[in-house]
Amino acid sequence: MRADVHQVADGTYLVHGSNTNWVILAEGDAVTLVDTGYPGDREQLLASLAQVGSSPEAVAAVLITHAHNDHLGSAEYLRATYGTPVYLHEAEVPHARREFLHQVSVGAVLRNSWRPGVLPWVVHALRSGGTTHNPVTAPEPFPETGALDLPGRPVPVHTPGHTDGHCAYHLPGTGVLVSGDALVSGHPTSRVDGPQLLPDMFHHERPRAVASLDVLAELEDELLLPGHGPVHRGSVKDAAHRARERAL
To answer: Domain Metallo-beta-lactamase spans what residues (predicted)?
Structure first.
């Protein structure tokens, strides 16, 4: 199986899984993997590593933007099989262990089931493992502050709201922002294209999610790699402002 891999900058790849993206940051054959898609995306995940000349054994670390199953999918597989460390913001570590779950409720989905795209999204999420019990047994908080000593030298940026410990990853060397679900450019349940917040039902605390757009607007990046939707080229500051206007 070939994965939908797009090289967007030197050593930087955006991969479109089934409704969710992940990012590969490469230095030689060593890589940092940001997010891992749904549990059902594993074949695509492994194929994407091969397509950039790497392998699961060469993954230096998995960085997770937030611990929803469509981003956490194969993190525990890589940790248990290859000893790959899985890093998250300290507030997201217990979420990854499934000590609690900040996720859209069945009731919220039912109340929104009339909206275009919601029912097909639900069917896909169920088939892809979106509701399975999929904890990471031994997730770890970031080992240092600032730039992480990993391929790509990503800098975690705490952007709470979607979940308490949601983090984007800033790549100052390439002007790239890996935004996770703090700022996206599309989603199967959204009827608009371009920079936006996810629909309200997906956020644990929507006001904090809106406020986190101001954090992203302080960055001078020119390339946005979202958790959902296509790459967005252009000022991240402008993208964050546009998403904020749409959210108000």
So the answer is: 19-228
